[in-house]
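ok, trying the design again with the full structure, not the truncated one.
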């Protein structure tokens, strides 16, 4: 039986934006969360048959609880009964459940971070990639020790197993070494929050959180020490970015932007490095005032739309729309792999010729020293003979 539509008008909150017209356009190359949520709201309203007025939090925040118990941002509007529902891409958490209600889940937030792609490490040091600097320094004193051992073994007949192990060791290092010149590597840390936390502690990187989100409290209350330290540094240094501003304003060298992965979608992020690590995954639903009348019907509509894949279609459409007019030629995708060429190996050849040069100098020095000692022995011998005859 066909569900009857009801005619009602609601006050609906969208994610913080500077003005209502920004929902009609997004930054070229970056998908806009307010646009995605506004389109999903429009789809739900047509399916349920209601109209709505859009409102936005004046403080531009998503919602944090203050010391006096009141709430800021989107959550505050709903808590004070100034709005009926919010399509604001808000995550579900315990504190919000105490004062608000949520619809069924329609997506999830995967909390990650994005940084600029670091410059590639010079290929002159490509031969050092397989091991860290500390390991190389550990291996240096072993070279003369191993040389003495090999010298001692050379005076004896070596068993086959020893020869096989030696050859196998050289081959293993060769197999380990060859992929490194072929695979470009960037400077800095890898894609993990533990390394980001270490980089932030040493002062080599900055980490920014969305202003007015619940992410800071999550970091501070995390069971993992590196996340606690990261959150504490962000709080002490007041490192936040305003989601109402163009996110490109915060694209700086050695700066990491933390947030849900949907905030980092679009063709422009091809020249950024999005971490595959995550410090949390939370469900997202429509936030409802406790007095909202039609939660059951809303859940049915959302479930139908999600089952049909329409929310994903809205996201993909927005990614495509935001990319229209973007000059993809200006977006240099990072080089992944390529065939080995002379340019990849010139660092090794420099090292080889440097070794030849040092060997030549040592050879000349040995010859010169040998001749000097020989001359001294002859001179000493001649002097001894003369003394005998005198």
């Amino acid at each position: 039986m066909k569900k009857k539509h009801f005619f009602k008008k609601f006050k609906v909150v969208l994610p913080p934006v500077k003005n209502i017209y920004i929902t009609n356009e997004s930054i070229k190359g970056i998908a806009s969360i307010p646009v995605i949520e506004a389109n999903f709201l429009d789809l739900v309203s047509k399916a349920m048959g209601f109209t709505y007025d859009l409102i936005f939090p004046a403080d531009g925040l998503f919602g944090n609880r203050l010391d006096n118990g009141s709430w800021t941002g989107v959550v505050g509007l709903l808590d004070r009964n100034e709005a009926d529902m919010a399509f604001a891409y808000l995550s579900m958490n315990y504190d919000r459940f105490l004062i608000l209600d949520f619809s069924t889940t329609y997506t999830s937030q995967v909390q990650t971070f994005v940084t600029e792609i670091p410059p590639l490490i010079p290929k002159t040091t490509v031969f050092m990639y397989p091991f860290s600097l500390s390991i190389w320094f550990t291996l240096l004193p072993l070279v003369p020790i191993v040389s003495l051992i090999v010298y001692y073994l050379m005076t004896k007949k070596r068993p086959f197993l020893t020869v096989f192990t030696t050859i196998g060791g050289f081959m293993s290092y060769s197999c380990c070494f060859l992929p490194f010149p072929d695979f470009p590597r960037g400077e800095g840390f890898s894609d993990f929050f533990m390394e980001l936390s270490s980089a932030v502690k040493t002062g080599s990187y900055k980490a920014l959180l969305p202003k007015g989100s619940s992410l800071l409290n999550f970091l501070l209350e995390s069971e993992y020490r590196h996340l606690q330290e990261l959150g504490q540094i962000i709080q002490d240094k007041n490192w936040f970015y305003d989601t109402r501003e163009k996110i490109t304003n915060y694209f700086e060298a050695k700066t990491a932007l933390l947030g849900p992965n949907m905030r980092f979608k679009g063709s422009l992020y091809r020249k950024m490095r999005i971490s595959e690590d995550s410090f949390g995954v939370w469900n997202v639903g429509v936030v409802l005032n406790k007095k909202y009348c039609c939660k059951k019907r809303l859940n049915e509509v959302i479930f139908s739309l999600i089952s049909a894949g329409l929310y994903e279609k809205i996201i993909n459409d927005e990614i495509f729309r935001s990319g229209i007019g973007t000059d993809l030629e200006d977006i240099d995708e990072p080089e992944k792999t390529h065939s080995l060429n002379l340019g990849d190996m010139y660092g090794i050849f420099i090292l080889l010729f440097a070794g030849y040069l040092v060997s030549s100098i040592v050879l000349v020095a040995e010859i010169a020293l040998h001749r000097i000692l020989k001359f001294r022995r002859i001179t000493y011998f001649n002097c001894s003979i003369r003394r005998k005859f005198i």
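Keeping the full-length input from now on. The mean pLDDT is 79.
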